[in-house]
Amino acid sequence: MLLVELVSAIGICALALGYEHHARFRAFDIMLRGRADSLLGAVQDAEDPQDNVMLDGTEANLPKTDIFEVWDQNMRVLGKSPNWQGIDPNTLPTQRSRARKVFAHGNFYGVIRITGLRMVDPGDKSGGIPRPVLIVYGSPLKQVWDEVWEAFEFYALTSIGLLLLTGLMMFWLL
Question: CA 72, CA 63: separation in Å to the nearest integer?
Answer without folding.
Answer: 23
